[in-house]
Amino acid sequence: MIIGVPREVKDHEYRVGMIPAGAKELVMGGHEVLIEAGAGEGPGILDSEYEDVGAKIVSSADEVWARAEMVVKVKEPVAVEYPRIRDGQILFTYLHLAPLPDLTDVLLEKRVTGIAYETITDRRGQLPLLTPMSEVAGRMAVLVGAYYLQRPYGGRGTLLSGVPGVPPGDVVIIGGGIVGLNAAKIALGLGAHVSILENNLARMRELDNIFHGQVATVASNHHNLISGMQRADILVGAVLIPGRSAPKLVTREDLKEMKPRSVVVDVAVDQGGCFETTRPTTHSDPVYEVDGVRHYCVANMPGAVPRTSTFALVNATLPYTLALAGKGVEQATADDPGLLEGVNTYAGHITCRPVAESQNRDYKPFEALI
User: Fold this and answer.
1) Is 170 designated active site?
2) How confident is the model at residue 241 (pLDDT cuts 50, 70, 90)?
3) Which residue in 201, 200, 278 sits closest to 245, CA to CA?
4) Given 299, 326, 353, which residue is the final one in a domain?
5) Domain that holds residue 348
6) Catalytic residue among 170, 233, 266, 270
C-alpha cells in the first residue's frame, strides 16, 4: 500500500502523523511511504531521517494526497485540504466529525473510508489512540490556565500554589477521565486545591485511591457544579462522550457565578465543548472573554508541544496503521472489533452511530456495507 503523510496545516499545528521508526516498519512490510517535505519540522524530525529508513520525500501536499492510498494525519482535514481528498481514499486521523457537518459532507461525497483515532477502542473498552493526547491536553490545561491567571494576561493575579500566609488557588475539573486525571496531577503538583466533579461512583473511588484523598472527588450535579464554579480560579472542562458532541454542562447564566478574571479551559472543544460559551480558538489567538471570565478553547492543544505529542501519538497509532496497510480495511476490522469502532464513514455512509445522531443523519453499520 502507498501511505502518505502530509504536513499539517491547521493553525500552529506542529505535530506529524508518522515518525521515522514507524516509517521503517511500514517500509519493511513492503509498503511505500510518502512524506511531504518538511512535514517533520515541527517536532524536529529531518527529511533525511525519513529517507534513511526508506521513506520517500515528496515536494508538495498535492502529490502526497494524489498518490497515497491511505493518508495518515494528526488533525482532521481543513477546508484548504478538501479538494485534495481523492475518491475512495482511506483517511486515518483524528476526525471529530460530530460538530463538523461540512467535513462529513466531503467524506461522504468522495466515499472516503474515514477512520477516526478518537473512536477506536481496545479490549477493555478504552480509547487507546485518544489517551496519549488526552494525557498531554490534561497536563497542559492547568499550565495554560495558570499562565492566563497572571494579571498581565488578563487574569485575577492568583498564584496557584499560594505562599506562606496566602492560601492556594482552586482548580475545579469537570470529568474524571484521562484528561481530568492528568489535569489533577499537574494542579496538585503546583500546590493548588483540586476537586474533580464526576458522575461515576466507581471512578470517584479510583481517583480517591490514586490521589490518596488529596484531591476532592465530588458527585457531579448542577448544585455541586455551581458551588465549584463559585470557588474556581481555573475551571477545566474534561468531558467526553466518544464520537458525540460534548454535553453543554455550563450555561452562560451559570458562568456569572464565577469570580471575575477567572479562567476556563475547555479541553472538550474538539467535540463542540462543554461550556455554552465555548468557541474554538487557535494558538495564534487562544483566549477571549465572556462576562468577565477568560476562555481558553484551543482545539489542538497538544500541537504546542509537538515533540512529546508526535512520538506519544505514533507509538499508539502505528500498530493500527500497520494492520490497515497490511490487511486492508475489511480484514483489519474483521480481526479487531475495536478498530471497527473507528470507521466513521465508508462508501458514502456514516458508519458511526454517535456521529450520525449528533448530526441528525442516517446511520448504516459498516458490516452491512461490505
Assistant:
1) no
2) confident
3) 278
4) 299
5) 2-127+305-368
6) 270
